[in-house]
Structure formats: structure tokens, C-alpha cells
Amino acid sequence: MTKKLPITVTMLVKNSEKYLSQVLTALTDFDEVLLLDNGSTDSTLTIAQRFDNVVVYHSPFIGFGPLKNLAAQQAKHDWIINIDSDEIFPEALIEELKTLDLTEANKAYAILRLNHYRGNVIKTCGWYPDYVKRLYNRTLVAFNDKQVHESLAIPQNVELVKLKQHFLHYSFDGASALINKMQHYTTLFAEQNKFKKRASVFSAITHGISAFIKNYLLKKGFLDGQDGFVIACANA
Q1: CA-to-CA distance for 167 and 110, rounded, in angstroms?
Q2: What is the reported pTM?
């Protein structure tokens, strides 16, 4: 029997059936894949039961940062990789992870994410290169407590290392998915920042125009045609 990677993959799920089978199939070399479910009503949990290395926990939504820390607390291993339910790890990345020295807890690892829109890799609009901090040792590193736009807080004594290989991110199948996700995130962001300085209508408009110009022109969204235009508009 092939020795499993002594890493727990943590994943927040809710009605995540679309890519979940592909995602979990790619993770069979990991000793544990921990799904923290927020109330799925589709076939998410049925799909999870097909994989021997998958365990499922349940929690109401308490914010992305707190949920990711809760998942890490339940993990079997101290080394954690947090991924989303629409992110697929290619074999080359798995092989690179197998070469890492996991006896050094004072390291964390960032992985290059290839973001897809309508099935195509997008390398404009600020979507590339997109290194995200994902592999860490929970004895030294954790997520902050933000409701949205959460991130790993890396202490000064922990070295951040970039891996060479990438993973695939299939977050947006079209404009409606892109806009719906952004609307959900902006609602959480507004709630998170409700006691901070309020923005005027004028500043909102000018910031939106500035964001469109930055993404469509300066970050070359126009090279991706209609897709780049839609992404730049959504960012604005």
C-alpha cells in the first residue's frame, strides 16, 4: 500500500456537488480530507461517502476565517492544506508535496492558483500570477477571524515558501456565477466593516471607474475579449 501524505486537507462545503468528485479523486494520496459542511441539501455528502480518506463535520456559517480554523482544530494532522471545493490538484503538485520536509514546522507554503472563467484560464485582470498561502502547520499558523477575505496570519518566525507547481480553480462558469459570488462577499464585507468609515456615492462611483480602468486596461483584461470585459466590470 502506498504511504499516504501525513497532511489533512480541509475544505468548507455547502451544495458543492459540481466539482467535488473530481476534487476528492485528486486527493486520494492524502491521509485525511476533512469536509466542514454548512448545510448541504444536494449530493455533496453522498459523494463524500465514496472516499475512504474523507471525514465530514458540520457547523453553521460563522464566517470563513473562523470556519477554516474550526476545521483545522478537528484535523488528524498538524500539517493542513486548506482548499475550496472547486479547486483541483494535478498530479505534478501532489508529487511536489511529497518531496517536502514536513519535520520543519516553521515553514508555510504558497501555491500558484490558475483561475478559470467559463472553463478558460485567465491571466489578465489581476488574476495571474495568483499565489495563495495554503499549506501550514497549525501549531504555529492559523487564519485570521475575518468573515470574508480571510487569510493565513504568518508569524515572523515562519518562512513562507512558494511551490513550483500549480492547482486549478474552477470558481466561475459565467457572468451570473461571478456576480452572485461577489454580491455574497460584498454583503459579508459590509457587515464586517459596518462600524468603520462610510463611503459616499461619489467615492463609490470613482473607485468603480478606477477599478475598471485598472483591470481592463492596465492589467490587460482586453486581451481576453468579452471575458476580460465582464471580469473588469464585476471587479468595478
Answers
A1: 11
A2: 0.88
